[in-house]
Amino acid sequence: MMQTAIETESSDKGALSGWTTRRWLRTGVATTLAVLAVLGSLGGWAMWRTSQITSELVDDRSPALIEAMRLEQALVNQETGIRGYGLSGRSDFLQPYAQGVKEEKAALSVLRPLVTERRAAADLAEVERLAGTWQRRIADPVSAAPAEEAVALATERAAEGKSDFDALRRAMTRQQDRLLDERDEATGTLRRAELLRNWMFAGICVVIVLVAALIFEGLRRGVTDPLTRLGTAAREVAQGRFDRSLVGTGPADLRQLAMDAEAMRQRLVEELKFSEQARTLLDEQADDLKRSNTELEQFAYVASHDLQEPLRKVSSFTQLLQRRYGGQLDDKADQYIAFAVDGANRMQTLINDLLAFSRVGRVHNDHQTVDLESVMDKVLDDLSVTIEETNAEITHEPLPTVVGDATQLGMLWQNLLSNAIKFRSPDRSPRVRVGAVCEAGEWTFSVTDNGIGIAPEFHDKVFVLFQRLHTKDAYPGTGIGLAMCKKVVEFHGGTISIDADHTTGTRVVFTLPAAAPSAAAPQGGGRP
Fold first, then answer.
1. CA 347, 352, 356: angle at the middle one, nearest 5?
2. Is it the case that residue 308 has pLDDT exceeding 50?
């Protein structure tokens, strides 16, 4: 039996442990409402009982006693009036008697409904009987007789009248004593009912306080404390303590919530391990890539620099052969020598361009406030011979001050303007316009020409290294210029592209971050 009791208790605990917060709350609310309903019923009964006794005392007992006293007073007034009229024969003594008769009738009309209890009703009936006897034998004959006869009749029946009225007085005294006792009994009952009501309401208050304390304690143990512990553990995990296990207590749904949070923590730990491994691998790859890029840049620089001397010798000797033996050999030999000289010159140009390209972001990296007006003036001065030979016209809007490297920005302007002049239309002189607009914290520059233009399918290709759209015979060059422009702009945090909406000629658009507000753009008109 003990084993069975233990198993039953264990099963009960297991069943309760499966209850959710909602079920606990529903059960607690239902129990609380039931307790409050019982307490409310008891309190209502106590209030009703007290009100009933109070109403009985106020509406029946006290008014009955008062009306009994009024009845006694009315009969005493009648007796006084009849006795005075019988002794003196004066009719003015009949006024108290008449008034007493009216008051008697009024008191009886009020008193009869109030004395429903059997003994009180018997007392009232006895009083009415004795009063009627006294009135028939004494009061009515004396009041109806003339003065002389009234005195004789009153004298004749004085003893009988006194005896009847004394009996009536004793009856009224018994009636009032009984009514007074009933009122005192009702008053005592009211006091006991009020005491019971007060104790009952005190008990109700105590029970309500106990129920509230049980509810708060149940909420604390079953909801707030488990949530607080779970929240503390979750915050520790959020702060980086991923080895902190999340253990749930309390109702079943809170434990399930803790289990879900624990599963999420374990998943995060696994993801963090994988992310850490991936980041380590990525850092290693980034280091390898950085080292490779550094080696490639060094290789490009060294190769370009070291190739200068042998290439210079090749170019010098081929030019020497061309000057010394030009015209002395056959035409085929002169052609071969010209090919060698041209190839050496183009190779030297290509190496110089590659050297300049490799230096972008590596050698020239001095970011400071740069006045683009001054840079433009220097570039136009460097291109003055080409501008004069091609009859080119270059104008520009007021250029701002930006933060960057002056040398690289000069290379940017020189490549863009020289390209605009080089790829000019054969039937008109080059016209180049440079614009500048500041929007959303950055400057947007445009270089617009009236040259041969670029087909839409090549708008992205032209910025790739060594990409040429024309043969070297039509337009000389190495295919590095716009690639270098892209590298310079991106090094300064901007973008560069070909404006697809511009159809006549070419418009190159690029952006540069605006300088500090104190660096104001200079004012002035365009210059040729």
1. 145
2. yes
